[in-house]
Write a structure and sequence with these properties.
Number of strands: 10
Mean pLDDT: 92
Bound molecules: ligand FNR
Order of helices and strands: EEEHEHEHEHHEHEHEHEHHH
Number of domains: 1
Length: 372
């Protein structure tokens, strides 16, 4: 990537209602576990501000916990409730804005991905649609209707707080096998009531959350919804096996109020279904007419694996960039999220714009230990 024309698609501004981004780059949400007792401090602001100073258009924060005792599955993940944490988030937003960027929190509940005994509030039971854990065993009671309504309100409260303290949008984490996605997947959701059933019926929990969030933030505040086919415990899982199923899954989410879909894949260049080059984000956009964010190994040629062993020294940081520009230029999707490349190179976007591809670093597992 050294001719300025070839990178043009990445540097076109993007606008959706009041959300105006200077280019098409998004920082992917990445858990850091650097917020002691759930409170993000000045180092968290520095971490995001460095990326914005280096031209990232939109930051989607690491997953942040809604107010529920069993929301978190790791220590030192930031809270998105309580005066102290929210005041710190307000400061982070301010710093991002001062540096010329935009920011959305990713609101998160881990559901049955949490191993109760290991993590914060170990006396609280992990929760999920049917109480089924990642080993397929029923380890807690299915959520009651009342508990579900309460959770819906807590997501809405987090979104309302995001708007109140100045965030530019909110992302609902509906991907990767966490709570919302556990309702989508029939391996976790065996409910016989209105929250279970076929794929469309299993969207009901998400639909109620999106509607409640919409009511809490009003018509103009963008709601981004992240979804994936893959699950933490199964990279080959397919929620939707063909475009028709994908359409039936996404349509209720659109009707509930989603503005932008963030389709989480591990390699953005891979076609989602046979017979077309479109990736999952491309299909989401085509089927819903909504803007889409794509993601997956930008600036890497290795896949995301559980232990990240695949991202090794022979990794080529400029792999597939031409493909990315082509997909952006053709309008297959609108925005591209960048994860690990932005960990190893906080100035990844600047380096790409200036054609300094030789200076790009190689992401290694060691980068995850400091995450600065
Ligand atoms: C992630 N990812 C992730 N996804 C998400 O929706 N919420 C999260 O909190 C996290 N946390 C997280 C931590 C770390 C260390 C990594 C590497 C990844 C997934 C991430 O957003 C992204 O989809 C993948 O990393 C793929 O993008 P890259 O890294 O290939 O650009």
């Amino acid at each position: 990537m050294n001719s300025s024309k070839s990178i043009e698609p990445l540097f076109k501004p993007f606008k959706l209602g009041n959300l105006k981004l200077k280019n098409r780059t998004v920082m992917a949400p990445m858990t850091r576990c650097f917020s002691p007792n759930g409170i993000p401090r000045a180092d968290v602001a520095d971490y995001y501000r460095r990326r914005v100073e280096n031209e990232v258009g939109l930051i989607i924060t690491e997953g942040v916990l809604i107010e529920h005792p069993a929301a978190g599955a790791e220590h030192d993940v930031p809270h998105f409730y309580g005066e102290e944490a929210l005041n710190e988030w307000a400061r982070i937003v301010q710093e991002v804005h001062e540096a010329g960027g935009k920011i959305a929190p990713q609101i998160w509940h881990t559901g049955m991905a949490r191993q109760k005994e290991k993590f914060p509030n170990s006396d609280a039971n992990s929760i999920g649609p049917s109480g089924i854990d990642f080993n397929g065993e029923q380890v807690s009671e299915p959520l009651s209707g009342e508990e579900i309504h309460d959770l819906v309100k807590r997501y809405a409260q987090a979104a309302a707080d995001a708007k109140k303290i100045g965030f530019d949008a909110v992302e609902i984490h509906g991907a990767h096998g966490y709570l919302i996605d556990q309702f989508f997947a029939d391996s976790f959701n065996k409910r016989k009531d209105e929250y279970g059933g076929d794929l469309v019926q299993r969207t009901r929990f998400a639909v109620e959350i999106i509607k409640a969030v919409r009511e809490a933030v009003g018509p103009d505040f963008p709601i981004i919804f992240r979804f994936s086919q893959w699950k933490l415990n199964d990279y080959n899982f397919k929620l939707a096996k063909n475009p028709e199923e994908l359409k039936s899954f996404l349509t209720p989410l659109v009707e509930a109020g989603v503005d932008i879909f963030h389709a989480s894949t591990r390699r953005f260049w891979e076609p989602e279904f046979e017979g077309s080059d479109l990736n999952l984000a491309g299909w989401a956009k085509k089927l819903t007419g909504k803007p889409a964010i794509s993601v997956g190994s930008v600036g890497l040629n290795a896949q995301l694996t559980r232990d990240l062993q695949q991202t090794t020294k022979e990794n080529n940081p400029t792999a597939y960039l031409d493909e990315l520009m082509h997909k952006l230029d053709s309008g297959e999707f609108d925005l591209i999220a960048i994860g690990r490349a932005l960990i190893s190179d906080p100035d990844w976007v600047t380096k790409i714009r200036e054609g300094k591809t030789k200076e790009l670093s190689t992401f290694t597992k060691e980068d995850l230990k400091t995450l600065v």
